[in-house]
Amino acid sequence: MAPSIKLHTLLADYPVTLPLKRGDVPLQGIEFDFVPVGKASGEFKRVVRDLEFDVAELAIITFLIAKAAGKPLALLPAVMVGRFQHPFLIHDRSRGKLEPADLGGRRVGIRSYSVTTGAWVRGILANDYGVDLDTVRWVTFEEPHVAEFHDPSNVERAAPGKKMIDMLLAGEIDAAVAGDGLPADDRIQTVIPDPQAAARDWQARHGALQINHMVVVRESLMRERPEAVREVYRALSESRRQAVAAGAADLPFGIEANRRNLEVAIDYAFQQRLIPRRYTVDELFLDPVRDFA
């Protein structure tokens, strides 16, 4: 048996991770060195640029872009965050009615063009409402996580110090993708009418969950200590089992459980030219993962 290995790890606090982070999951051959983290998305540059972590959560679209850029990261089929994105496209209703099909030619704020929530929202707009995404002016506030990715020509950066919701309420942008949730302001309304019903319809048609964050490990760890990666996945699975038993949402784990989710994410990423080709789901996983997940 190889000696125990300490794994520098980035995982935020979610129901699915808390049993593991509390020490309720016995470990064999590995230790997790958890870094303090509030909102994980704020640390994704460290994951894909600095390659700082042995184990980390990462947004699925960021992973796909990182894969296209040749980053040595390996995906595990463990979902940390998944949700339907329909409620996060918002506008100021005091400025008049705005429907999804009206967004062509409009200015839409988004934290960064390549973020996962934005990719899901754009996929919904294009495929379900017929919006020509190239006609939308996307106003961003942060650079891409993956340095090698370049925003398309219809993306502009907001002036320094500008805040997305302030710009929305001032009429400087027509809509916004508020990935952190709806502000507490009576003027704010979702662009998609009855977004919960729209999400149920989307799920019925696609048979998928809109994944946000999964887990990645260093490729070198996968090559050199595949048994450690197997134990990482086992520990995450046990943490999920305990969370579900305590009433948490049952997020999908496993390649087959996520196959359809990943197929749709890949389709949307390719349609939006975030990745150069349409990967197959099996391409996303290295051989050792296929043996245990």
Count the strands? 11
Question: What do the pLDDT scores average to?
Answer: 96
Overall geometric form? globular
The CATH topology assignment of the largest domain is D-Maltodextrin-Binding Protein, domain 2
The side-by-side strand order for the widest beta sheet comes to 8-7-6-9-5-10
The Cα radius of gyration reads 19 Å
Give the CATH architecture of the largest domain: 3-Layer(aba) Sandwich
Low-confidence stretches: none
Describe the structure.
This protein is α/β, with parallel strands linked by helices and 293 residues long. It has 2 domains: 5-83 and 210-292, Periplasmic binding protein-like II (D-Maltodextrin-Binding Protein, domain 2), CATH 3.40.190.10; 86-206, D-Maltodextrin-Binding Protein, domain 2 (3-Layer(aba) Sandwich). Helix content is 34%, strand content 19%. It contains 10 helices and 11 strands. The chain has helices spanning 18-22, 44-48, 60-68, 116-129, 164-169, 195-206, 219-224, 226-245, 255-271, 287-292, and strands at residues 5-10, 30-34, 55-59, 73-82, 89-92, 107-110, 137-140, 155-157, 175-177, 188-190, 211-218. The protein has a 6-stranded mixed sheet with strand order 8-7-6-9-5-10. A 5-stranded mixed sheet has the order 2-1-3-11-4, with helices on both faces. Strand 6 (107-110), helix 4 and strand 7 form a beta-alpha-beta unit. GO terms for molecular function: 4,5-dihydroxyphthalate decarboxylase activity. It is an enzyme of class 4 (lyase).
Task: Give a brief outline of the structure.
The chain has 293 residues and is of the alpha/beta class. The protein is 34% helix and 19% strand. Keywords: Lyase.
